[in-house]
Amino acid sequence: MSLHAPKLAPRDCGDCQIRHRAVCARCDSDELARLEEMKYYRSFQAGQNIVWSADRMDFVGSVVSGIATLTQTMEDGRRQMVGLLLPSDFVGRPGRAIAPYDVTAVTDLVMCCFRRKPFEEMMGTTPHVAQRLLEMTLDELDAAREWMLLLGRKTAREKIASFLTILARRESGLKARAPKGQITFDLPLTREEMADYLGLTLETVSRQMSALKRDGVLELEEKRRITVPSFDRLAEETGDDADGGMLA
Amino acid sequence: MSLHAPKLAPRDCGDCQIRHRAVCARCDSDELARLEEMKYYRSFQAGQNIVWSADRMDFVGSVVSGIATLTQTMEDGRRQMVGLLLPSDFVGRPGRAIAPYDVTAVTDLVMCCFRRKPFEEMMGTTPHVAQRLLEMTLDELDAAREWMLLLGRKTAREKIASFLTILARRESGLKARAPKGQITFDLPLTREEMADYLGLTLETVSRQMSALKRDGVLELEEKRRITVPSFDRLAEETGDDADGGMLA
DNA sequence: CGGTTAATTGAGGAGATTCAAGATCCGTGG
DNA sequence: CCACGGATCTTGAATCTCCTCAATTAACCG
């Protein structure tokens, strides 16, 4: 693990790359000023835990850069990832100080944290934060339910394909709508983390990745770097209908 | 299917049995009056669809009495239930008119519906509805994530035990905290519906129910009526830790 | 009563897991 | 620069859990 600090935080909210997607998206300049007073940045290195399940959390906040995971663990060690947090995603719940899940940085990561108390007060007095948080929570609920279908009903191959489709869509979505042609991206997760996300074992993940490679659905030069020759071909493997089963 | 109309709706909000748990829980009498203007009741018979996936929804609303399910279906017919709606639970999403799931009444059911447009306006102007809806959505998200662990990592026996534990807890919870001694209740779902909820086949559900009966964890006189001699014994079968893995 | 739906049970098979052995990658220090 | 060690990943063989297909039994309703 490197010792140098992860990417620097933005100078102020105006410069922030998640300004228009995070909980603060709807805030006017007055509200932003209030948030600035209660906010502070924290950096985490890849592999570090941000929050431990059952521990007290004195803050809530947004992922500014990097990727984090939400995981639940059973007594005997079985693990299930229940969320993948990308930049602008929210961590914590107003009104609850005890964390229900482990939150872990899988890459170097920067969080924009708000002290719990003043944030909760603001939730009660100005509507824009609460409105945006509701919207984001509803989106997360949709994503969780999509994942329930995957976990309960999809085959290992379909699970892998679905996961890769999300990554591929996100990768190409940053550039242009409707992914066409060849897409290349890095896997943010290890095989084991993928397994925890998909409700599989790491061996099964590895085997299905090899199978998809063998069948020409994807190419693997380095272990963590993936090329998808045809997005549509990959999407066919997910078991979803043509539009990818996404919400309209 | 019986032809007589299901249970009557309450006269007004003051008499309503879900008044203090539904989206309207936090509303003062002025706000309640506004809601009364946009609300109407609808009754559904057991088995009837309330909403079809991909159809337009002109209302949102609360389940007043009865039980409904949220289900997703894949092209080839594989089905996964992604939610079980009990009295006070909310249906629909402000800001989205297209339903992402099928909503089906599994018992006779009454809904308190709000016309979409005025409800959305109210969301923007008075904070109490939005605040309560946020709280409820966060609870649903927790429940969905709990279910992700079940779907991804639990064995068939643990899945059944977990589901029955929820029902048993709810049954005894209505009377007293900390379920002790013998609990008896009716299954609201068929074996097939349980299978769709738990990510299993109906045969596996049936087999595991028989196994739990054989092992003395539960008694089955009629197919849908269950007696749990010891709640703790059942809870041991869920794979969760002692407190049932519930949130503090 | 039939006829229908729901539930149980059995036999056989498929898909994923477990256990185990190697291969590959990468940072570190000789 | 290259060799070592740990972590990550791949692959194989055996096993097991759950599914599929099929036959029966039980409950339900006119």
UniProtKB/TrEMBL annotation, chains A, B:
Keyword annotations of the record: DNA-binding, Transcription, Transcription regulation
Keyword check for RNA-binding: no
GO cellular component, one term: cytosol
Record CDD domains: CAP_ED (cd00038), HTH_CRP (cd00092)
GO function terms (MF aspect): DNA binding; DNA-binding transcription factor activity
InterPro entries linked: cNMP-bd_dom (IPR000595), cNMP-bd_dom_sf (IPR018490), Env_Response_Regulators (IPR050397), HTH_CRP (IPR012318), RmlC-like_jellyroll (IPR014710), Tscrpt_reg_HTH_Crp-type_CS (IPR018335), WH-like_DNA-bd_sf (IPR036388), WH_DNA-bd_sf (IPR036390)
Domain of life of the native organism: Bacteria
Region forming the signal peptide: none
Keyword Flavoprotein: no
Residues covered by the HTH crp-type domain: 154-232
SMART domains: cNMP, HTH_CRP
Domain Cyclic nucleotide-binding per the UniProt entry, residue ranges: 23-140
NCBIfam families in the cross-refs: TransRegFnrLRhodb (NF045989)
Full protein name: Helix-turn-helix domain-containing protein
Source organism of this protein record: Stagnihabitans tardus
